[in-house]
Amino acid sequence: MDGNFRFALAWFSNIAVSLSVLQVFKYLKNIIQLPLFISLLLIAFFGSFSTTILLSFTPENFTYTLFLLTLFNHYSAIKLKKEEKIPALALAFSGITIGGLTVTNIVKVFIPVAFEKGLFKSWKKFGNAVFRGFFTCICFILLYLNRIDFKYENIFSKTNEQYEKFSNVNSTPIWDMILSYFFGGNILFSNFIVRDKHNMKGYDYKGIVMDVYSSWIPYIFIAVLLVLIFWSYYKNFRNKLVQVLMISFLFDIVIHCILRFGLHTSYIYGGHFAFVYALLLGWLFYSYKDSPKILSLLFAVFSIMFAYLVTNNYLRMTEFFWFLNTYY
Question: Given CA atoms 167, 171, 175, 181 in this order, what sign does their dihedral have?
């Protein structure tokens, strides 16, 4: 395609990521009800993530998955906060759009339903939830089978093929891939490596890939961030909105870290869960709104992390643009 077409695709990506950032901001401001300054700081933090930067100019399904997941999380949080159920059509639409981009993400659509008020205390409400879930699954399955011309046997072969392609990598220790790619690569850019690539059809080109971290500082950064995230979860354990976010995040951890599906390339899947960091940090600030000393400590730690994040990712992006100018 010509340059104008690619330029339009990049703008669509940019708009989708911008709308995702907006949904995260609305969640922080309207659902958690944080002060404007803290909400803006968390948004700046999220906007500086490597995933957010990369997806803002990359025509990928992860770009639109990020927008749809942030939109659905905000919408479902509104419903749960008002103690209302998610309508069947809204649930089906969410399942089709989110699951249509990445099949496994359809599970995340059903998580908020499990936290609707009185669901397990009333057979009527439970039956209604089952009906909505069944209706969503039927709609999704029919559309999915229609897309593959009802050749359902291809599902298992393709799934196994993808698993073999993206999971059999033994050159890097698993713990390092988990920290550098899954938890870290979505936030902090690591070292870039320039490699000779080809498209299996005789076309050779220069490619750039992310390596594991070469310094101890990024590992400390990720460790501190994870401590803050799980601290937030512990502090807000009884909060059903926090449970929805964490269960969704744990689902990605199981797929990529335990089942090892695409673990060595999971930094590109950040659109599936990167926004959870900002939201859980928001809940952590909220839980200590009446504790000035702890709030000051959190703010100090977060400010240092934010400064390092911006500096690191800015320097890595200058390397990325050097690569573009040199080879393209």
Answer: negative
Measured between alpha carbons, how far is residue 161 from residues 227, 255, 265 in Å? 36, 16, 16
> What whole-number distance in Å separates Cα of residue 155 and Cα of residue 104?
13
pTM (2 d.p.) = 0.91
Q: Are 51 and 267 in contact (CB under 8 A)?
A: yes
pLDDT string in tens for the chain (328-residue length): 678 888 899 999 999 999 999 999 999 999 999 999 999 999 999 999 999 999 999 888 899 999 999 999 999 999 999 999 999 999 999 999 999 888 889 999 999 999 998 888 888 889 999 999 999 999 998 888 887 776 766 666 665 555 555 555 556 788 888 898 899 989 999 888 888 888 777 788 888 888 889 889 999 999 999 999 999 999 999 999 999 999 999 999 998 888 888 777 777 788 899 999 999 999 999 999 999 999 999 999 999 999 999 999 999 999 999 999 998 8
At residue 250, what is the residue type? L
Place of tokens 């220069």: 206
Print burial letters for 207-238: b (CB count within 10 Å at least 16), e (below 16).
eeebebbeeeebbebbeebeebbeebbeebee
